[in-house]
Design a protein that fits this description.
Number of domains: 1
CATH topology: uncharacterized conserved protein from methanopyrus kandleri fold like
Mean pLDDT: 96
Radius of gyration: 12 Å
Helix content: 10-25%
CATH architecture: 2-Layer Sandwich
Strand content: 35-45%
Distance between the termini: 32 Å
Number of helices: 3
Structural class: alpha+beta
Order of helices and strands: EEEEHEHEHEE
Length: 99
């Protein structure tokens, strides 16, 4: 599995943005929900499941898009299935640790 992963640091926050590779650059819209899987935000490098897991474990905030990306976050216990939004059939999840 291939993911696009980018790490952002802002003060004490470590934000990981990740998506299924084929979604990079897509614009999704459904009802009032809009999401641009912007390469500037999501495209840092290509990684596998192990790489994404390492970034998730070190992050304080995550923004995740795509079936494989969100399923991995659920499997690892970072995201509860009932907290996943779907936009045009594409899963999207965010989480943040309260410091």
């Amino acid at each position: 599995m291939v993911f696009r992963i980018k790490n952002h640091t802002q003060g004490r926050e470590r934000v990981v943005a990740a998506c299924d590779e084929e979604l990079l650059g897509k614009k999704l819209a459904e009802g009032r929900l809009r999401l641009h899987v912007n390469p500037d935000f999501y495209d840092g490098f290509e990684g596998d499941e192990a790489a994404l897991e390492q970034f998730l474990r070190r992050s304080t905030v995550a923004n995740l898009v795509g079936k494989r990306t969100v399923e991995l976050a659920i499997k690892l216990g970072f995201v509860a299935p009932e907290n996943v939004l779907t936009i045009e059939g594409v899963p999207h999840a965010q989480w943040a640790l309260m410091l």
